[in-house]
C-alpha cells in the first residue's frame, strides 16, 4: 500500500498539459484513436502496442463505452492512463514478493518487495502513462515462471514463463531481457529431467509466441510493415552519449543510475547478495545474476543512455538485495535471534531511507505548478499578442506537436505570438548570427532554458557556436524575467539529462527547467 500511495501522489501533475513527449505522443492518444478510427492498427511499431491495447480496454470500462471515451476530457484520459500504470507498478511489487518467497522464504520476499516498492526510479516513472513500469508486470510473471521451472518444472511454470516473456516483449521490447533467466531455468531443468523437458519447452515457446502476437497482432497481420519498422530499432546504434551527457561510458552511466534510482545501500546490498548467493544457492544465482548483468552491458553498449531503460532489471536486483539483506542480518544476529525481527524492520527502513526521502520530495513537487506553466502565465500577461517570439525547444508551447494536450489539433491551446522556428539540429546550428536573423525578422523576445543551455555548457568544446550564442544573448538582450525551479538559497543543480527531468536533487522546489525571458534591444525592438 505504501508503494501504491507513493505512485499515486501527485499523479495529476501538469494536466491538462503534458510535458513528457513520450506520454504526449504515444499510448493514450493511440488508444483513443482506436475508438475514433474503428481500426486497431497503431501504425507505429517502434514501441510495442501491449500497453496501448490495455489502455483501450481500461478506457472502455472506465468511461462505459467508446462514445464516452471520444467525448471525454483529455485530462481525464491521461489521468486514467497514469493510474493504470501506477496500479501495474504495485502489481509488479507483489510479483517480486511471490518470486522472492518461492525461491527463498517470506522474509526475502518481503524485503525484496519493500525495496522495489519505494525505489525512486519505478515510483517516479509510475506517474506517467508510458510503458516502462507496466512492463515490469510481465517481467515479474516470467521471473516467477523461471523460479517455478527450477523448483518443480511443472507445465504451469512453463506456461507462466513463456506467457510472461511474450507479454514483456509485447509491452516493451527491451523487457525481453528476461529471456536470459527463462533459458537458464530451462537449462537447469533439462540437466535434471532431460527428455521430459522438451515437451514442456514447446509449451513455453508457444505460450511466448501466442502472448506476443496477442498484444502485437500486426506482427502477423502486416509483417512487412511491422518488421521494417522494427528493424530500425533492432540495429544497435554506435556507442556514445547524447550531447551534454555527463558519462561517456554507458555501463558507468547505468551503474550511477542504480545509485539513486535504486539507492546506494540497496545496490551495495544487492552486490553482497549476489556474492552470497553464488556460495549458498547456485541455482538461484544462475537465474538472478546473469540477467541484469547481461542487460547492463547490452544497454551500456547502445547509444543514448536513458535511466528508465534500466527498469526491467529492477525486479532481479531487488531480490538480490532482499536476499543479501536477510542473510547478512541473520548472520550478524546469530546469537541474538530474539532481535532478528526488530533488526529486519529497522534495517529495511535504513535501506529505504534514501529512496523514501526523494520519493516524497518529488511527489510533493508534482503537486506544484511546473516552471513552464509559470513562464507561460508571465508571457501571456507581459508579451504583446502581436510580438514575434523565439522559444527554445523545451516542450513549453502546448500547441507544439511534441507537447500537445491531445492528438487532435482542435484540442490545442492557442498561442497569440508569432513564433520563430529555430535552426535544426538545434544546438549544433546555434551561433551569434542567429541573433542577427532575429533582428531581420523582428524578433524581440527570446525564451531559453537550461535544458538546452546546460547541454552546451557541459560540452563547450563540442558546441562552441552555442556557447557563443548564449553569451551574445546575455550581451545584446536584457534578462527581464526568470522562472527558477530551485528553492530559495539553493545552489542550481548542474545539468543532467536525468535529474533535469525528474527533479531528484532536493534543491528543486518545483518541476521543470530554469527558464529565462530576454528582451532584445535591436533596432526594431526599442
Describe the overall structure.
It is a single chain. This protein has a domain at 371-525. Helices cover 61% and strands 5% of the residues. It contains 25 helices and five strands. It has helices spanning 2-8, 21-25, 27-37, 50-63, 66-71, 74-103, 106-118, 120-125, 136-151, 155-171, 179-193, 197-215, 218-221, 223-234, 250-280, 282-288, 290-300, 314-332, 340-365, 371-382, 426-429, 433-441, 450-458, 464-476, 499-502; strands spanning 388-391, 418-420, 443-449, 477-483, 515-520. A five-stranded mixed beta sheet has the order 2-1-3-5-4. The radius of gyration is 25 Å and the shape is globular. The N and C termini lie far apart (59 Å).
Keywords:
globular; mainly alpha; 5 strands; 526 residues; five-stranded mixed beta sheet
What's the topology here?
Layout: H1 2-8, H2 21-25, H3 27-37, H4 50-63, H5 66-71, H6 74-103, H7 106-118, H8 120-125, H9 136-151, H10 155-171, H11 179-193, H12 197-215, H13 218-221, H14 223-234, H15 250-280, H16 282-288, H17 290-300, H18 314-332, H19 340-365, H20 371-382, E1 388-391, E2 418-420, H21 426-429, H22 433-441, E3 443-449, H23 450-458, H24 464-476, E4 477-483, H25 499-502, E5 515-520
Parallel strand pairs: 1-2, 1-3
Antiparallel strand pairs: 3-5, 4-5
Helix pairs in contact: 1-6, 3-4, 4-6, 6-7, 6-9, 6-18, 7-18, 7-19, 9-10, 9-11, 10-12, 11-16, 15-16, 15-17, 15-18, 15-19, 18-19
Amino acid at each position: 500500500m505504501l508503494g501504491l500511495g507513493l505512485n499515486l501522489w501527485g499523479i495529476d501533475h501538469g494536466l491538462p498539459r503534458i510535458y513528457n513527449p513520450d506520454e504526449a505522443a504515444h499510448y493514450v492518444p493511440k488508444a483513443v484513436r482506436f475508438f475514433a478510427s474503428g481500426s486497431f492498427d497503431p501504425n507505429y511499431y517502434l514501441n510495442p502496442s501491449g500497453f496501448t491495447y490495455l489502455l483501450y480496454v481500461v478506457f472502455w470500462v472506465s468511461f462505459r463505452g467508446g462514445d464516452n471515451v471520444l467525448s471525454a476530457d483529455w485530462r481525464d484520459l491521461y489521468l486514467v492512463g497514469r493510474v493504470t500504470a501506477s496500479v501495474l507498478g504495485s502489481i509488479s511489487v507483489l510479483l517480486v514478493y511471490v518470486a522472492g518467497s518461492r525461491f527463498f522464504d517470506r522474509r526475502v520476499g518481503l524485503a525484496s518487495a519493500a525495496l522495489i516498492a519505494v525505489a525512486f526510479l519505478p515510483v517516479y516513472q509510475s506517474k506517467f502513462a508510458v510503458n516502462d513500469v507496466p512492463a515490469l508486470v510481465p517481467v515479474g510473471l516470467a521471473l516467477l515462471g523461471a523460479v517455478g521451472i527450477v523448483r518443480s518444472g511443472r507445465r504451469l511454470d512453463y506456461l507462466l514463463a513463456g506467457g510472461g516473456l511474450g507479454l514483456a516483449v509485447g509491452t516493451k521490447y527491451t523487457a525481453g531481457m528476461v529471456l536470459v533467466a527463462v533459458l537458464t531455468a530451462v537449462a537447469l531443468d533439462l540437466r535434471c529431467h532431460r527428455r521430459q523437458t522438451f515437451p514442456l519447452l514447446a509449451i513455453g515457446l508457444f505460450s511466448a509466441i501466442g502472448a506476443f502476437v496477442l498484444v502485437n497482432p500486426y506482427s502477423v497481420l502486416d509483417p512487412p510493415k511491422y518488421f521494417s519498422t522494427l528493424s530500425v530499432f533492432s540495429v544497435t546504434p554506435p556507442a556514445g552519449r547524447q550531447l551534454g551527457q555527463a558519462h561517456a561510458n554507458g555501463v558507468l552511466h547505468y551503474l550511477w543510475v542504480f545509485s539513486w534510482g535504486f539507492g546506494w545501500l540497496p545496490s551495495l546490498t544487492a552486490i553482497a547478495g549476489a556474492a552470497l548467493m553464488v556460495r549458498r544457492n547456485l541455482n538461484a544465482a544462475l537465474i538472478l545474476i546473469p540477467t541484469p548483468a547481461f542487460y547492463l552491458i547490452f544497454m551500456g553498449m547502445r547509444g543514448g543512455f536513458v535511466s528508465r531503460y534500466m527498469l526491467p532489471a529492477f525486479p532481479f536486483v531487488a531480490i538480490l538485495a532482499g536476499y543479501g539483506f536477510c542473510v547478512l542480518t541473520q548472520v550478524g544476529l546469530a546469537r541474538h535471534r530474539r532481535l532478528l525481527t526488530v533488526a529486519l524492520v529497522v534495517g529495511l527502513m535504513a535501506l529505504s531511507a534514501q529512496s523514501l526521502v526523494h520519493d516524497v520530495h518529488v511527489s510533493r513537487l508534482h503537486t506544484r505548478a511546473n516552471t513552464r506553466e509559470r513562464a507561460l502565465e508571465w508571457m501571456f500577461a507581459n508579451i504583446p499578442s502581436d510580438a514575434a517570439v523565439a522559444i527554445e525547444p523545451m516542450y513549453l508551447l502546448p500547441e507544439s506537436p511534441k507537447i500537445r494536450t491531445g492528438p487532435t489539433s482542435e484540442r490545442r491551446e492557442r498561442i497569440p505570438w508569432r513564433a520563430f522556428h529555430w535552426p535544426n539540429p538545434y544546438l549544433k546550428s546555434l551561433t551569434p548570427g542567429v541573433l542577427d536573423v532575429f533582428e531581420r525578422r523582428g524578433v524581440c523576445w527570446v525564451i531559453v532554458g537550461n535544458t538546452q543551455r546546460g547541454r552546451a555548457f557541459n560540452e563547450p568544446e563540442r558546441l562552441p557556436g552555442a556557447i557563443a550564442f548564449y553569451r551574445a544573448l546575455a550581451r545584446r538582450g536584457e534578462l527581464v524575467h526568470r522562472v527558477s525551479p530551485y528553492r530559495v538559497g539553493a545552489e542550481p543543480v548542474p545539468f543532467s539529462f536525468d535529474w533535469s527531468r525528474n527533479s531528484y536533487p532536493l534543491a528543486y522546489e518545483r518541476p521543470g527547467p530554469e527558464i529565462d525571458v530576454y528582451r532584445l534591444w535591436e533596432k526594431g525592438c526599442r
